[in-house]
Write a structure and sequence with these properties.
- Helix content is 60%, strand content 0%.
- It has one helix at 11-36.
C-alpha cells in the first residue's frame, strides 16, 4: 500500500506576492498621508 506524500508548496512565489502586496500598501499609505497633510492647521 503506497502512501502519497504531500507536495510542498513553493515558498518563493508566496513570498514574492507578499512583498508586492506590502510594497503597494506602503505606496498607498505614503500617498494618502501626503494628501491629508495640507488640510492640517498651520500654527
Amino acid at each position: 500500500m503506497a502512501i502519497k506524500r504531500r507536495t510542498k508548496v513553493d515558498a518563493s512565489t508566496s513570498m514574492a506576492s507578499m512583498s508586492d502586496l506590502v510594497f503597494l500598501l506602503l505606496i498607498f499609505f505614503l500617498i494618502t498621508s501626503t494628501l491629508v497633510n495640507p488640510n492640517a492647521l498651520k500654527l
